[in-house]
From TrEMBL:
<dbReference type="InterPro" id="IPR027372">
    <property type="entry name" value="Phytase-like_dom"/>
</dbReference>
<protein>
    <recommendedName>
        <fullName>Phytase-like domain-containing protein</fullName>
    </recommendedName>
</protein>
<feature type="signal peptide">
    <location>
        <begin position="1"/>
        <end position="24"/>
    </location>
</feature>
<dbReference type="Pfam" id="PF13449">
    <property type="entry name" value="Phytase-like"/>
</dbReference>
<feature type="domain" description="Phytase-like">
    <location>
        <begin position="33"/>
        <end position="263"/>
    </location>
</feature>
<keyword id="KW-0732">Signal</keyword>
Length: 283
């Protein structure tokens, strides 16, 4: 297998993008049975999203916005993806509406043609051949590029460590296109492609609460260092696991995150939305 140059996901290699975030809003999502939210895909208009629960439910969520800012959120529909007792973690929305879902453990990916309607039987996509990964640290970071190619990387590098293998599905075969290195203590838990064609990666660290980092890089040019966009430390009780990247009507980049409350009273199901102005940086 041909290995591309390693991409170091370290702020030491390419500091923060500037300027600082223009704005950030956060809201809670509550309701019977709502919890365990691990992935999100925003619709292009920012008025709604698909949100994945680790109990196998896919929720349609609509947002009330005031001047573009997040207001209330409510679930308008829910679908049960699988009755097999699997733990869904990653979500990727294809340009044509197909959905891909990744799971904890060794379960193959599921591809839902045309979306996840009730009773639909998904196509199974085998996982890459890879040294053993810890069963609770499999492929949480899942994304699809504009060409319809799935990319994913594990939460733990397993026996291939310390680097994290980045896989891309090409013509039905998984190919490792890079070996990624995260800052100490951080692990990849979410990913999405932005309107600029770049891959945005959500990292999480555990300590006295949760910390997150968001990085951006080009999988087609792994020799170019990744850039750290944000370092989030102000939400120690928010377990952010899902990331969606989109562009609003004014051309600003928005990063929408969702947190997994693990169905615990001490945590919350929270949406955090950050607006960035990259000031001339390619979008």
């Amino acid at each position: 297998m041909r290995l591309c140059p390693a991409v170091a996901l370290s702020a030491a290699l390419a500091g923060l993008l500037h300027p600082a975030p223009l704005a950030a809003q956060d809201i809670l999502l509550t309701g019977p049975g709502i919890g365990g939210l691990s992935a999100i895909e925003m619709r292009e208009d920012g008025a709604s999203a698909l949100v994945l629960s680790d109990r196998g439910q896919l929720h349609e969520v609509t947002f009330e916005r005031e001047g573009g800012a997040l207001g209330k959120a409510r679930v308008t529909a829910s679908y049960l993806l699988s009755g097999e007792g699997l733990d869904p973690e990653g979500l990727a929305l294809f340009p044509g509406g197909d959905l891909a879902v990744s799971f904890e453990g060794n379960a193959p990916l599921r591809l839902y043609r045309g979306g996840a309607g009730a009773g639909q039987v998904p196509q199974r996509i085998p996982l890459p051949i890879h040294p053993a990964l810890p069963p609770n640290a499999m492929y949480e970071a899942l994304a699809v590029d504009a060409r319809g190619r799935l990319l994913m990387l594990p939460e733990d590098p397993g026996q291939s460590g310390p680097g994290y293998p980045l896989w891309r599905l090409e013509a039905g075969e998984w190919r490792q296109i890079a070996q990624l290195y995260a800052p100490r203590g951080y692990r990849p838990v979410g990913a999405d492609f932005g309107p600029d064609g770049q891959l945005y990666l959500l990292l999480r660290a555990l300590g006295l609460g949760f910390r997150n980092m968001i990085l951006r890089f080009d999988p087609d040019h792994p020799e170019i260092p990744a850039r750290r966009l944000l370092h989030l430390t102000g939400y120690p009780r928010s377990n952010f696991e899902g990331l969606s990247v989109w562009q609003d009507d004014s051309g600003q980049l928005r990063l929408t995150l969702v947190s997994d409350d693990n169905f615990s009273a001490s945590l919350k199901s929270r949406f955090l939305e950050i607006t960035l102005d990259l000031q001339g940086t390619s979008r």
